[in-house]
Predict the 3D structure of the following.
Amino acid sequence: MCGIDIEKHTEFGKVRDIWNDHYYEKAGLCEFVRSVVMNEDMLDEKNKNGHGIMLQDLSNIRVLVSKTDFPFTELPQRKKCSIDFTQANSNFILGYIWLCPWKIEKKDHMPYYFIQYIDTRIAGLNIAEYMIDAFEGGGTDGLLFPYEVEFGARIYWKRYFHRVYQVTNKKQLKQMIKEYGLHDYSVKWENLFDVLE
């Protein structure tokens, strides 16, 4: 793992807030829109949200943006990175969370928000975990759950649920779903069940 202090060198917020903050160059956000949101490359295996499907909610997408002093030069060469550094000089989007268009208000509980898609653009920095923690601790007063655990993300969510909710097997996951009332919202966690004992 790289020793970069993510909290010190980034800011987490909605696209619209980053866009309206004069501190940030717009070119980094434009690179994200071109490379991710409007990606038309059908052969790009990471292109799950291209083709403009996120445009409908672009201003509300939560992003982790690099500050001007982000130490990109300290990243090991072997770290996977999908950022096009030729498109901007600073303020790149390092990761994003696209939420489902609803939240669940429950009596006696914090609201629940559901992740439609989450992705990071630099591997090995725990960016996804950092964004989830920033969302839950950033004044939303709510919990964040995946709506669907996709096949390629099942190991990540297995580790996440173990770390955060101490879920290590199917029985505990079923209990958690019951306790949080998530069965009422038809979460699609079959791939997570498949990797638990």
Q: What stands out?
A: The two ends are 28 Å apart (CA to CA). The longest helix spans residues 26-37. The beta strands are 10-14, 62-66, 93-104, 112-120, 143-146. The chain has seven helices and five strands.
